[in-house]
Amino acid sequence: MKEFTLDEIRRCDGRDGRRALILYKGKVYDVTGSFLWQDGRHQVLHSAGADLTDAMDEAPHGEDLMERVPVVGVLIGD
Amino acid sequence: MARVAREMVEKAGVNVDQLIELLVKNAAAELTTYYYYTILRMNLIGLKGEGVKEIAETARVEDRNHFEALIPRIYELGGELPADMKAFHDKSACPPASLPKDPTDVMGILKVLVEAERCAVRGYTQICNMTAGKDHRTYELAVAILNEEIEHESWFSEFLGEGPSGHFLRRGDTSPFVRKFLQ
Predict the structure, then answer these.
(1) What CATH number belongs to B3-181?
(2) A60: distance to nearest CA of chain B, Å?
């Protein structure tokens, strides 16, 4: 599985045609094709290119929804 | 715009611009769902489909009511709808509730319907959480819509074999929770 640094993930913010990646519990998810992540934004409050592990506590859904998104890699230290 | 009403909400700690964007996205979800449900309902035919048609129709009409109920609040808070209908569609808080490739697949249609309702339940829960104790008017509206979305979800869920919905179909008018916002 591909390894990503935090910097690489941050650059994938989904804006201006860039790929949209999010980090959750050390895994990297590709949300580029998701209707719910257009332009790298999700429900106004979240942006791609970020670690959303803590945000899950406040989300109106569980982590089971992450299973619908392809995992494309894991985080490694910078 | 209701200037003081907006100020009160801001003073309570709500990011009003974010809230307006969420309300617009959810209004888009309601109107697009109304459109897509029209197609789904038309295809709910035959021995399996006819039994689901009535709740699909009720959910369809109530989703349109939710759209109507949301709009005044958006403008009160200083927001507006996009001038471009296509942009409005693409802003939706929920993915399109598209007809399955096989339009005779009633279980497939039910899965589309229940997913749309679950998306709505999540969306209004988020708005309720944002506004509870801070923006009383938006909260009351979001709770009313949430009540109806939960019922829609449970109706479709029952047909998918996930257990009893806990209640009957609507008797009388649609939108028992949202009706007061439509007057």
Answers:
(1) 1.20.1260.10
(2) 5
